[in-house]
Design a protein that fits this description.
With 277 residues, the chain is an alpha/beta fold. Helix content is 49%, strand content 12%. Helix 7 runs antiparallel to helix 8 and helix 7 packs antiparallel against helix 11.
């Protein structure tokens, strides 16, 4: 199944740019429609107490941040909570590996979005030598059991891997290097991932092969076309959760209280932001 997914992803990635690039107006219209559905999903999650965890993994510069931004930009951060953990502290390095992730799992009425996750171990940690090969293999043996336990506890777990071609990744890296507004996105780890493309390919192939299970399957997102990837991924998330529309109870805006006769405007001087526009 993994090979079929990779073949299908590769076929999509190799499409000519003219055919792959999504139209701006069509994209904006579809994204607006999906934002409405995400609002309905949010209302249902709050009412039902559902617990949803969404994992985003993938190649560097594959567009994970863009998908997450569009997924969360019109909903409440109290419901759609993004978790992007930094490198582990010295204390966390002494803990059970999954320990620092478990505390971020969703409670009732939450959707937690992992911008990279426990899959750092068989990916970047393994390739860059931050963990041993033995530790990475042990993780691959334990992860399916851990995720099965999450699903059986009632958590909806969705896992997405965003993929790009070598040529597109290089184009995006060079674009970041040349654009002051994007240079912050280009980290030393990104440069290493560029240099070690095939090391990462082997690591990701083994990771997906070992952890693509019935309880928690991987979904591959071809993302040479960022707009298409965003629409496809958000649509799949919505279709994977059996939410229902919750009727909104409009509040009754009664008449405001009248200004009290004894109210006196505060005459204390205040600092006002100057008009520049």
């Amino acid at each position: 199944m993994i090979k079929k997914n990779r073949d299908r992803a590769a076929a999509t990635i190799s499409e000519p740019a003219e055919e792959a690039k999504s139209g701006g107006k069509k994209y904006a219209k579809e994204l607006a429609r999906l934002h409405v559905e995400l609002a309905h999903l949010q209302a249902w999650v709050k009412k039902s107490g559902a617990r949803i965890a969404i994992i985003f993994e993938g190649r560097d510069a594959a567009g994970k941040g863009g998908v997450i931004k569009r997924l969360t930009e019109r909903v409440s951060p109290r419901v759609f909570r993004v978790v992007a953990l930094p490198a582990p502290t010295d204390r966390e390095k002494t803990q059970i590996y999954m320990q620092r992730y478990i505390q971020h799992l969703p409670a009732g009425g939450e959707i937690v979005i992992f911008d990279r996750s426990w899959y750092n171990r068989p990916g970047v940690e393994r390739v860059m030598g931050f963990c041993s090969d033995k530790q990475a293999r042990r993780f691959l043996e334990q992860a399916p059991t851990f995720e099965t336990a999450l699903v059986e506890s009632g958590i909806t777990l969705l896992k997405y891997f965003l993929d790009v071609s070598e040529e597109e990744q290089e184009r995006r890296f060079r674009q970041r290097a040349d654009d002051p507004l994007r240079q912050w996105k280009l980290s030393p780890m990104d440069v290493e991932s560029y240099n070690r493309w095939w090391d990462y390919t082997r690591a990701y192939d083994e990771m997906i092969r070992a952890t693509d299970t019935r309880h928690a399957p991987w979904w591959i997102v071809p993302s040479n076309d960022k707009k298409r990837a965003r629409i496809n991924c958000i649509s799949h998330i919505l279709s994977s959760i059996p939410y229902e529309r919750v009727e909104f109870e409009k509040p009754n805006f009664s008449k405001r209280q009248k200004r009290p006769d004894n109210f006196v405007d505060d005459a204390t001087p205040r600092n006002l932001v100057p008009d520049v526009f």
